[in-house]
Amino acid sequence: FSSSSYQTSSDGKPGKFQPPPKPVIIDKQRQTEERRFLSPEFIPPRGRTDPLKFYMERKDMIQRRRVFNIPEFYVGSILAVTTADPYAREKTSRFVGICIQRGGKGLGATFVLRNVIEDQGVEICYELYSPRIQAIELLKLEKRLDDNLMYLRDALPEYSTFDVNMKPVSHLDHEEVPVNKLQVRMKPKPWSKRWERPKYNIKGIKFELPEKKMKEAQKWSQPWLEFDMLREYDTSKIEEKIWKEVNEGLKK
Amino acid sequence: MMPIWTKSGKKHAVTLLKVQDCHVLRYISKEESGGKTSQLLVGGKNVSPFYKSESAMEIFREAGVPRKQKVTTFNVTDDALIKPGTPLYAAHFRPGQFVDVTAKTIGKGFQGVMKRWGFKGQPASHGQTKTHRRPGALSTNKAAKVYRGKKMPGKMGNIYRTSLGLKVWRINTKHDIIYVNGSVPGHTNCLVKVRDSVLPTYRDCNKNPPFPTFFADGDEELPEDLYDEEVFQFTEPSVTY
């Protein structure tokens, strides 16, 4: 048994007691669970297009991301976007809203922000890679139960109102993205779409319809769809390759 | 097809065309071709040499070039002649030029008169008996015949069509890709013929084209991407007004 912390000073007398160094805990589980987020517009759609076309688009997208920061966000997070507007007084216009839909692949990727301003619902569709966008700030990082929140148009307006001067809510990097399990209450029917039908597969609405209507809606269910093998599109390997490519591109 | 933005913030849609192994195959003189100018035979994409007869392969053997899937003729003036066997690259075109693109349109098969010629058809109800998508009358009473060229149902598509006056926004010299404004006839990954525009408005738009063509000898070093002046390049910061 030898203690390396035993000090011997030049005098020969024992030196001041130095406590042993604190042990460094390397939590291997934590390290492997680092969150990887690949923006959905990088994943190419299934088709007969030459992969070279997607490669050229990705190069342009990575180039734009190097100059301009596009934060990680999901459908249900609250964003503030400043765009260049030639007709505004300060030549910029700022809009705050909840992201209800992310569409498009490649350079034409878009996201729709919704907010209710002075009792008027407003939705603006922005292009992620458009050069007129000057800043995208993430005010609240959140996920919801659905991928598409179009039903907020038929929900009570309180669920779509967000303060325009909201302060950004801090969010730690390594924690998981919080899922807001909010069930939204709707305005009375008629709605713009029949959200109770199983084709929309919405989990975020508190349906207050009678049981009979809910059962009738299940008539349009297509239970064979989830077993259809031709509709399967396994993107795991493609995502790995693209993740590596994007990371290398951004590090330069 | 891809979006491209100009420096003023406007968006345009752009088609990517790849120049894949193009070689000049043969020179046809003015007397041989019988036209006003001499012609050059140019071949596209490389394919296997095994499925064609020997006589067809003669042209490729003389030029010293693998067999090409498509061979087209270009009318060329005498001072722009190129030796057979030279490869052609995307840098032959420059951004800011205007081009005409020819290709075979997507074949739709045997189609009725409403889809093929845009006829209005007949109403769906109010007593129509078995007549909703038919052509109706073919000619007048006095003519007592049907004129040649009458629009009738038939095979639609799969014919050569040209889109005229398309602007070239950007050229990638590394992968030989031309970014051409707007849409182009044909399906994805089809073979396409790109030619300098024949329209009178764009006759004098070429300022300094590579003449007769861009030879990749290593004499002039071109950057990997050539952009038009108005194109917003992603290395610049966002547009402000």
Automatic annotation (TrEMBL), chain A:
Keyword flag Ribonucleoprotein: yes
One Pfam family in the UniProt entry: Ribosomal_L19
A Gene Ontology molecular function term of the record: structural constituent of ribosome
Metal-binding as UniProt keyword: no
Family membership noted in the UniProt record: Belongs to the bacterial ribosomal protein bL19 family.
Subcellular compartments: Mitochondrion
Disordered, as annotated region: 1-33
Protein's GO biological process: translation
Protein name (Swiss-Prot/TrEMBL): Large ribosomal subunit protein bL19m
GO cellular component: mitochondrial large ribosomal subunit
Source organism, top-level taxon: Eukaryota
InterPro entries cross-referenced by the UniProt entry: Ribosomal_bL19, Ribosomal_bL19_sf, Translation_prot_SH3-like_sf
Lineage start: Eukaryota, Metazoa, Chordata, Craniata, Vertebrata
UniProtKB keywords: Mitochondrion, Ribonucleoprotein, Ribosomal protein, Transit peptide
Record's compositionally biased regions (Polar residues): 1-11
UniProtKB/TrEMBL annotation, chain B:
Pfam families in the cross-refs: Ribosomal_L3
Source species, domain of life: Eukaryota
Keyword field: Mitochondrion, Ribonucleoprotein, Ribosomal protein, Transit peptide
Cell compartments where the protein resides: Mitochondrion
GO CC, alphabetical: mitochondrial large ribosomal subunit
Listed GO biological process terms: translation
One example GO MF annotation: structural constituent of ribosome
Claim: Mitochondrion is one of the keywords in the record: yes
PANTHER family: 50S RIBOSOMAL PROTEIN L3, LARGE RIBOSOMAL SUBUNIT PROTEIN UL3M
Family that this chain belongs to: Belongs to the universal ribosomal protein uL3 family.
Name of this protein: Large ribosomal subunit protein uL3m
